[in-house]
Specification:
With 229 residues, the chain is an alpha/beta fold. The protein has 8 helices and 10 strands. Strand 2, helix 2 and strand 3 form a beta-alpha-beta unit. Helix 1 crosses helix 2. The longest helix has 23 residues. The chain is globular.
Length: 229
């Protein structure tokens, strides 16, 4: 596990955009295609905008999400809306976006269609995850009824419906095995509070308490942590 610390978010965003662009370019050169999984929230917005300006063969890149709220893609809480407005612009407007939200009435009914869409992508080039104040990542929330299924490495599942115990909206989330099916995992966080939570997660082993531990403790994919003070 590699931990990279930055004095401010601007410095982090610049280096992370260059790192991700390089990983995508490598896969395009080697395979003719690449894929990127991103997360929502305020933290990645500056990074998204810088990455969108990188000169790549974006036509060969598929972009999807680690999780999504089961809301219309014009809803203010939609991760798809956030990504379309902040990442799929400039050069990156040519990328192929694969939504997790379907036309189904609820996330449970949409699971099969979402899993089929993900299967077409294959192994991810890079997965970028955030970390909530409760230790969740993607929509793998502590206390959620679906958490054991989301963390199970032998479930055969790639996307599951999740109803958080505290946060609003039903969700669809990539499962742990699907997130780990990646050439590179990156956790992107900022602030002293997130650093303290990360240290607490590293110190313990109970993934049900802090699901981010499942990412920190795994050995399946290389992991880098980008943290801005």
């Amino acid at each position: 596990m590699e931990i990279l610390e930055y004095e401010n978010t601007s410095a982090l965003d610049i280096e992370l955009a260059e790192k991700v662009a390089g990983l995508l370019a490598d896969d395009i050169a080697a395979k003719g295609k690449a894929s990127l999984v991103v997360s929502g929230g305020r933290t990645p917005m500056g990074f998204f905008q810088l990455l969108s300006q990188q000169m790549l063969d974006w036509h060969s890149v598929k972009v999807t999400l680690a999780d999504e709220r089961w809301v219309n893609n014009e809803h203010k809480d939609s991760n798809e809306k956030l990504v379309r407005e902040n990442l799929l612009i400039n050069e990156a407007r040519h990328a192929d976006f694969v939504p997790l939200k379907t036309a189904a009435d609820n996330a449970l009914e949409g699971e099969v269609e979402t899993e089929l869409a993900l299967a077409a992508i294959g192994q991810f080039t890079v997965v970028i995850l955030g970390m909530g104040d409760d230790g969740h990542t993607a929509s793998l929330f502590p206390g959620a009824e679906a958490l054991p299924l989301g963390l199970a490495m032998d479930s055969g599942r790639t996307a599951i419906a999740v109803t958080p115990t505290e946060a609003p909206h039903q969700r669809i989330s990539l499962t742990l095995p699907r997130l780990l099916n990646s050439r590179q995992l990156i956790i992107h966080i900022s602030g002293a509070g997130k650093q303290s939570l990360l240290q607490a997660a590293q110190a313990g082993d109970d993934v049900a308490e802090l699901p981010i531990r499942a990412i920190l403790k795994q050995q399946a994919a290389p992991l880098s942590i980008y943290w801005a003070k």
